[in-house]
Amino acid sequence: MKYQENQKDISLKIKKARRLFILSCEIVVLNFLSILPVTAATEEPVLSVVYGQENANQWRGISDRLQTIGVKYCVISLNDVKSGADWGDRRVLFLPNVETLTPTQAIALEEWMSKGGRLIASGPVGSLSSPGVRQLLRSLLGGYWGFSFSDTEQIQAAKTKIPEWTNQTGLFGKVRGGVVIPNDMGSESPAVWNSKDRPAAVVTTERSTFLGWRWGTDTASAAELDNAWLKTTLNHYLTALAPSNRAKKIAGASQSCSTTVAAAPSAQGSSTTATLSDREAALRLRSVTEEQRGRGAEGQGGGSSLSSPAKTATAPISRPLPMVKPPSSQEAIDQLEQAVRLDVAPNSNEPIDNRQAIALQQELENLIGRVESAHLAVLADAANVGETISEGEGKQFSRHLNTPQSVKEQPIQLASTKLGALAISKDQALAQARLIAKNLPQLIAQKNYALARQQWLAAKTTLWQQFPVDRKLAQPEIRAVWLDRGTIVRAGSKAGLAQIFDRLAQAGINTVFFETVNAGYPIYPSQVAKEQNPLIRGWNPLEEAVKLAHERDMELHAWVWTFAAGNQRHNEILNLSPNYPGPVLAAHPDWANYDNLGNMIPVGQTKPFFDPANPEVRQYLLKLYEEIVTKYKVDGLQLDYIRYPFQDPSAGRTYGYGKAARAQFQQLTGVDPVNISPSQADLWQKWTKFRTEQVDSFVAQVSQQLRQKQPNLILSVAVFPLPELERIQKIQQNWETWARRGDVDLIVPMTYALDTSRFQRLAQPWIASKQLGATLLVPGIRLLSLPTIGAFDQLQLVRDLPVSGYALFAADNFNNDLQKLFNSTQGRIQSTTTEPIPHRQPFQTAAIRYTALQREWKFVFQNDQRQRSSQKLSDFNNQAEVLRSALNQLAASPSASKLVVARASLSRFQSQFRVLMSQEIKSNSYQVKVWENRLVTIERLLRYGERRVQLRSL
Fold this sequence. Notes:
Strands 12, 13, 14, 15, 16, 17, 18, 19, 20 and 21 form a ten-stranded mixed beta sheet that branches. A nine-stranded mixed beta sheet has the order 2-1-3-4-11-10-9-6-7, covered by helices on one side. It is α/β, with parallel strands linked by helices. The protein contains 30 helices and 21 strands.
């Protein structure tokens, strides 16, 4: 049987190599002779090109290139596609730079390709579509758009894939594009970017080719390079051998065709217009997924008016700074993630330097620790409540612990069995991973880089499968989720919203950041703001959400856009001009802010901003927030976009030149800020400080005034985790100051990353920071494109670090797999009592978390055969009990004296902890560090609780 499987595998590899060889030969010959067989061989079009709203402004470049190639083609209007037949009966479909497909269109595309259709796509195809559409497109294209480069990069042949392409210079050159992430199976990368780890620039499969740049746009690539790729790829599919090229036409598909360039729709042509209801329906579908595009809590689309603005805001005349460089097209939060990437390409034989080698080994050892830590939490909890667990499960945490005699057979379900993966035992997986981690330096020293990467990835995958997913392992923590406007709009009513809250409550979510003000529109009927979000009709989502949350023992925090006043993406939803600044700035043009070129919306960005220095702006926002916290019984308020837009002073891109700001700064210094530049160090520093203080003082004002109205209000901020000095220069956001002053209760950094190592490197500096006073830090996790077990791994890291919880972006990505996982590991299915929420009941949380921590090391001690000094063990237990008693007394009846005793007991215990744990440090240093981190979390909860008591007494 094994022999037959090996023969089958060898046969598949031979076929695959044969296809690649034929493809490379075709490319060499056809590109060398500049032949396009279809032009001479057929009279009928063999290519269909898709036209849509998103490539309309690129259509001239696209059609000019097609005309240069000389191939006959048909134009397919994306708006007309409702079924597989609508994609046409031509054998090849070209989808240039279309970022949004509806579920109907994606399913139709799958049907069309199943009948023999071949697809060529370019740019971030489907990247703005719903998660289900993106997943389907990923399978059809053999990969997905990962991220954009900020500058041009060189495309070159992939040496390890198809070396015959290397000498075809027409296919390679400088391009501004992005990384295409290939699927694990069935995809090849014939061209790569000349950057770190050689990521894919082109991904091809038997039935599709994905070009990693916006084809047909001069800003992305030269026409000659575009033409070479399309000619080469088109010829490959038209001349491929059977069975790949069996279909001459697509059976049952539409035969209608516009065959000339003149017949192609133009950006202003009638073919691009639909009835208002058709357009509105299509755009509203888009609004559901629009939230996924941006920076999480800061990347949301906003509502806009159905009517044109009555007023137009105009910029003051300003003197542009010299040497203005174009901004990156990449989102700021994604740029931040790139700075901490730990990409591991499975087949790359690129050298691994010493720093990378250490990082790879450390991350594998940390993952081993996280798996063990999760199992220990499960086992300690099970032992406490008298559950039975499988033999052997209790012996891994000191690496050589004995199985407790009282433990009976009750296997713990692992991610590998619950999520459908191939399972091996936990002990086997951990032993293999340790061996791989140990051998990595040797493989790298031998320059066997590809094998080192492959083994690392295999170990990571296997370890992910070992997480326990059917037992409660979470202790009281902040479990927050951003409930985005798109999901609220889609709910449509109280009944629809109730279903969402039911799911979140069952999953153990206890705090909801409910999007309340978006792009200048409140989601509720306001007496302060003139217009409710026009996507909401006939109901009050905020009023209903507060009731639904409180009925389920959840907190509802109103999430508001602060200084971002509008959103171009949201304007598209209702077919408004991209320049519409939102309802507030349309009514009050003097409130607007501007960049150094006089633009309200900075080049390359999508949102106009208020001028924080304008006293009328501040008064309006304060009045609006006061309405929210007094009229509705919200538990908290979260400030988003509490900053200026992104700038790069070194590239000549700055912002903040609103009418009020200019007048105030000139009064202070005698200089109009539009007339200074970063080269004038002293003045520029004053200008930066002035803008930063506008944000700082507004946060303080919000905190003071709203807490006078509602003393128990929890105030949080969604912030960027950039280094402090860089952040102040780029967005004037100094959240350490807000934390130290006690203006805010929760700092929620948007530490969004696609793997746990990146997440840790983004979050770790702020978790370890001593600059936050008594404020709690709650890292943000973006669920978009994150595998279910990858999200769980990030949660486990959070639980092993000294923080009190997490925030998930966003409800729209909270899928059924995550729901099941959360129900089992932290949900109410496993709990009959309501847990305290750390930011609301810090002392009770500290006591419960300490009791759970105590159970873990008791479990380890009881199942460890190593000899310990009885006196040492007795001292440890006595100190641990003193601390437990002090925390319990404080939780039961808080007072200043009990807080002093609890903090003193904790301090003594922490000072002796590593001495008391000296043996465990030798055998499992990761777990000891986790325990130390959890003691730090308790210390921070006590400090936060002390401040909350002081606030209430004011």
